[in-house]
């Protein structure tokens, strides 16, 4: 290693020959031979027709599901052998999910929802965690909604709370499954602006599934799936 | 906010179903409360009964009997062989405890033990035209007072009056009433041996045990021996211990040493203790049944919450809560219901026991007591709490496991 090669960022998340087959009398192949490497601070859109396996891939990359072949590497670590508790720990520390439906806990306030991952992880006094959660919410333009319950917010606001919750423990990767599916154009644009800023300013990797061509075009990279296989892989 | 996350989650879950939670808590509380009241009642009654038995009769009775039939000389000659005897006529022996005098003085030296010799036998008491067949017990009053607490049960006169009035008799008030006699009256005692003795009532007692109050009378040992025509014979040693619970072992030692049948108060009342055991198992099964019903309530509420909150569970898992965290969240809910139910049950139990203690009932004058005997014991409260906590944990365990094992992907797909 004498002459330093051009610095390529180490992949944060990597799929190596990943396949997912649903067992049963007639096994269903959801995904097949997926090779994918995504670096730090990349903003990636996963697109493809309905039923092509986009959600399935996202669950695998997010360690919510296990591949039936191949393996997922997170920060260079192979997760194939990790047990359920270890995977939960990795999700807590390194990953953040945003789904189409916001999935906020209805009994907790906006602030309470954002603090759930922080309280599980610990690493600070209650007051410190609260200040951090408040900072996140202010950053996402929710500074005046913090004591409200999720039912008192608009759809766009709820989705931003969900993003704040996904960011609570400063994850390496945000995984979003059609986060704008239920939003109007303006709110959808706000969400994508947030993602772009996150990737650019904090180096957080953002992987989002979307059906919207216009939004997908705003990312750095597009990954297209057809029938459970990757089609294009352009940057 | 300083509450741990899982406790916070558990609280929101059960507070979201207030009415169902209250019903479950009440179910547990009733079970615990009834158990406490029933236990107080039963143990109170059993304790009273045992105390009465212990106080009214000797702790150990040594009789002129053997547990095994006498070994025939021919069997001794062919030890280990099979012996068949026809037309055996056992020798008629003078019954009674041999060398009772030395036995009494030997046993008196044992620590914590008082012994009194006696001779009992049937007599008919005749007063006017009334006859009562009773057991007349000949005693040594100086020794007897150390052996039974009959002296405490005397309502008129005293056992020691037997010593000063040689022809005195002490009997139960019940017997005196049946005969129509009272203190100072003279009556005739007629024995199966045909001896008639004129005796005078010098004392009356009431133990509360009607078989004693109506069926026994005390006279001097010497007079009993005359009455039964059994000079110098003693057929019973009555023993009292300072350590009441040691009666079984001491009785066994005496029997091993002297061969005579020695019966502890426990053995004498075995039948009653059997009834107590049945009573207790009825109580525990009743409480167990209430607890099973309460446990179903808890199972029901937690299952409902698990079903209703399946999305929340999925999102919590995606956030990074482990299966253990989820399981704990729901187990905690069961425990909370169990704990609140137990505390409330303590209060119900306390209230019920207090209520029972105020009840008076109208009974004939044969028994001294007109109220429930209640035993207040902290142990009942702990057992009640243990009952409720284990029922609630078991009931919560099944849905908690289901929640922990649920696959978040399935739920999130289903919800999308
Ligand atoms: N549990 C299951 N049983 C049977 N088939 C399933 C199951 N889960 C997923 N599939 C099938 O797997 C394929 C991929 O599903 P997936 O949800 O990943 O697609 P998608 O690209 O996210 O689609 P959409 O754009 O509609 O969300 C689909 O054909 C779906 O019907
Ligand atoms: Mg999908």
UniProtKB/TrEMBL annotation, chain A:
InterPro entries per record: AAA+_ATPase, ABC_transporter-like_ATP-bd, ABC_transporter-like_CS, ABC_transpr_LolD-like, MacB-like_ATP-bd, P-loop_NTPase
Keyword GTP-binding: no
Highest taxon listed in the record's lineage: Bacteria
Domain ABC transporter per the UniProt entry, residue ranges: 13-235
Coiled coil: none
Name of one Pfam family that matches: ABC_tran
Keyword terms, alphabetized: ATP-binding, Cell inner membrane, Cell membrane, Membrane, Nucleotide-binding, Transport
A molecular function (GO) term: transmembrane transporter activity
GO cellular component: membrane protein complex; plasma membrane
Key word Iron-sulfur present: no
UniProt GO BP: lipoprotein localization to outer membrane; protein localization to outer membrane
TM ranges: none
Protein family membership: Belongs to the ABC transporter superfamily. Macrolide exporter (TC 3.A.1.122) family.
Name recorded for this polypeptide: ATP-binding protein
Organism name: Skermanella stibiiresistens SB22
TrEMBL record, chain B:
GO CC aspect terms: plasma membrane protein complex
Chief location of this protein within or outside the cell: membrane
Name of the protein described by the UniProt record: ABC transporter
GO BP field: lipoprotein localization to outer membrane
Domain MacB-like periplasmic core: 21-257
Membrane-spanning segments: 21-42, 282-302, 334-359, 379-398
Keyword list, A-Z: Cell membrane, Membrane, Transmembrane, Transmembrane helix
ABC3 transporter permease C-terminal domain ranges (all copies): 287-408
Membrane topology recorded in Swiss-Prot or TrEMBL: Multi-pass membrane protein
Keyword Transmembrane helix set for record: yes
Recorded family membership: Belongs to the ABC-4 integral membrane protein family. LolC/E subfamily.
UniProt organism field: Skermanella stibiiresistens SB22
Subcellular location: Cell membrane
